[in-house]
Specification:
DUF421 domain-containing protein; membrane; DUF421; 64% helix; transmembrane helix; 9% strand
């Protein structure tokens, strides 16, 4: 029993190469699928992700069902991912190549139809994301762009932005000044006593 758990049934180098190859393949597939897949997984996307892990399992493990073989594959995946992540953090050109560039999806309150089409993003999905970020409708947006990591960044038009604490404090200060001036004017208009 212990022998079956610990005996790697294919060469370790093959196990590592299989894992790296599948990692690269999945990376390329997600890059080709685009940012929209990362932005918000719908039911169909979830089905693909679940099935994808099952489909590539044998490509990674081969004929090896040992515990040690699985551990080697897991360590390889984590190590390769950590290496790629660190590489992308240091090399902007590589990040742009592997992750892509941001895509503007709303400009001056209007949808950029070509961008929505290429991202396979429905207007209703975009409107929902805008509401989550304090906008009421697409017309409220100065600019919205989908980042390479799938995150939607929304910049509302100035008139549609919420007041900040600094705005509220500025109004309080101005109101206090108005009250002081009104009190001074009222005091000047009082008849002498």
């Amino acid at each position: 029993m212990w022998h079956d758990l610990m005996a790697v049934q294919i060469p370790i180098v093959e196990k590592v190469l299989r894992t790296v190859a599948v990692y690269v393949l999945i990376l390329v597939l997600f890059r080709l699928a685009g940012k929209r897949g990362l932005a918000g997984l719908n039911t169909f996307d979830m089905v693909v992700v679940f099935l994808l892990s099952n489909v590539v399992q044998n490509a990674i493990i081969g004929n090896d069902n040992s515990l040690l073989g699985g551990a080697i594959g897991a360590v390889t995946l984590v190590a390769v991912n950590a290496g790629v992540t660190r590489w992308l953090a240091r090399d902007p050109k590589a990040a742009r190549l592997l992750e892509g560039r941001p895509t503007t999806v709303v400009k001056d309150g209007k949808l950029v139809e070509g961008a929505l089409h290429s991202l396979a993003l429905r207007p209703s999905e975009l409107e929902h994301a805008i509401r989550i970020q304090n906008g009421d409708k697409v017309g409220d947006v100065a600019r919205a762009r989908l980042e390479p990591d799938g995150q939607l960044l929304v910049a509302l038009k100035l008139g549609e932005q919420s007041a900040t604490r600094a705005d509220v404090e500025d109004l309080r200060r101005r109101l206090a000044e108005i009250e002081r001036l009104l009190t001074a004017i009222a005091a000047d208009r009082r008849p002498p006593g």
